[in-house]
Each structure stands twice: as structure tokens, then as C-alpha cells.
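Researcher: Here's the sequence for the chain we discussed earlier.
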Amino acid sequence: VIHLELSDNVDCPVTEWLDLKVKNENLPSKKKLRTHIQTGQQLSTRLGRYVDKERVLDKDNDRYMEIVTDPLTGEVLRHCEEALSVHQGHGSA
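Model: Thanks. This is the structure I predict for it:
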């Protein structure tokens, strides 16, 4: 099943945000989500402008990856690659 949602708002800058989820419907509800990929531009509250963000949570391969870059300078603001099983203490983890 692919769920694709597109929206447009003329009051804000043009940005892209892709949110993909891969689920295994044969598993119990809390374990259905196997892979979650997010990529695109997201508003940084610290900078007050949009940054490029890519995040991958892959339960089947025990992988967490997040890269945040400043599109104006190319500076990497955050780069985290680690086993998903050790990615604790962040948000709702």
C-alpha cells in the first residue's frame, strides 16, 4: 500500500518532504512498522530557516541514520549513524 500526500501553501517557501513507511501486516501492531524513511526540507527552530534532513530507521537491519545539512553553507549540522538498538534517549526513543 502506498499512501502519497501532496500539499501546497502559497504563504511559505516551496519545500519538499517525503515520508515513507514500510509495514509488515503479518506482525502485531507495535511491530508492523519495519522501515521509516524521511527526506526533504524541514524548518530548523534554532536557525529559523529550512534545512535539508534525511532520516532512516530500519528495524530489520538494526540501522539508524540521520543527516542534517545547511543548504546555504553545505555545513553538516548533524550526522548520526548507529545501530537502532543503541539509539536511545532521543525524542520518544
